[in-house]
Amino acid sequence: MRILLAALLVIACAGCEELSPGWLIKDTRVLGATVSVDGDPTRSSPAAGERANVELVMGAPLGVNDTLGWAFLPCLVSRTNAGLPACGGDPLFDQVAMGTSSPPAFSFIAPTPDPEDPAPSVLIVGVVCIGGMPTLDAANMSYGCDAASIRTFPLTLRLPLQIDADTTNHNPMLAADVFSLDMNEWLAPASPLTMRDGCASMPDSSELPHVQIGTAHKYALAMGGTEYGEIVRAASGDTSERHEAITISTFVTEGKLPDGQFDVLADATPTGPGPLYLELEREWQAPTEVPSDGAVVRFLFVLRDGRGGQAYAERFACVVP
Questions:
Q1: Mind listing the domains of the chain with CATH numbers?
Q2: Spatial contact of 302 and 284, defined as CB atoms under 8 Å apart
Q3: pTM, full prediction
C-alpha cells in the first residue's frame, strides 16, 4: 500500500502578462513536469542509483516557436527545513543539466538518502529562459536569465524518492478515449497540429471537431480503475485507504474557460481498491473571431497526483465562422 508523500512543483514567471487568466496560453510558458524512471517509464519515484528522466510540459500558441535556454541542478532536500524546501548539504554538482532543447528534458541519478530520513526527496531547482540563455552559479545555487530573455521561469520541483514498496509512485494513466467534446469521442491526432490558421478545409473528425464561433461546448474527462489513481494511505501506519486525488489543470490557446485554474478528482470516502469511476465536465466558450478559413484551438490537460506523478494530454478543435 502506497503512503501519501507530498510533492511540490513551483513555477514562477518574470515578464508574463499578469492580467491574463492562468488557463489562457498567450505566450510560451512552463505548465508542468513529468518524471519517469529508466526501465519503468510508468514510475515517477526513483530509488537511489536509478536514473530519473525529467521533461517539462510547455505550452505555446500554435505557430509560435520561441527559442529556449534552461539549466537545472538537483540536490537532496534538507530534513529540517521549514516552509519551502531547501537543499540539505552540497548540491549534486556533477549532475548540472543545461541545454536548449524544446521541451526541456534532462536526467539525473537519484542520490543515496540519509537512512534516518523517513521521507527523503530530491529538489530540482533551475530556470527556463524564453528567447535567451540561463546564467547559473551552481556553487551558490544562483540562477537567472540573460538580457536577451523575454520571459523567465524559475522552477522548483520536489520529487519523493522510493525507499520501499510503500513509497512507490506511478504516473497517472490516460487512455486514448478518456476525453469527449459535446458527448462525442475526442481523440489526439496522429501528429500534433502546429499551425493555427486554415483548418476549415480539414475534415471534421474526432481528432479535429469543428465548432462555430461564439458557441459553448462541454468537454469531459472520464477516468476509472487504474487510470484514476493508486490506492494510498495518508501516512505510514494509517489503515484507511482511498484512491489518491488527481489535480487537473486545463489550458487553452483561445476561447474562454470557467473561472479557476484547476479541478480535483477525489474519492472523499475511504474505500478499498474496488472499481471507481469519476468524471469531470466543464464548459468552453469558443472565440468570437477567427480568420475566414478557421482557426485551430489547442487544449492542454496536465494531471498531478501530489506525489510527483504527472501526465499530460492535448486535444484540438477547429473554430469556423
A1: 2-167 (2.70.50), 179-320 (2.60.40.3880)
A2: no
A3: 0.83
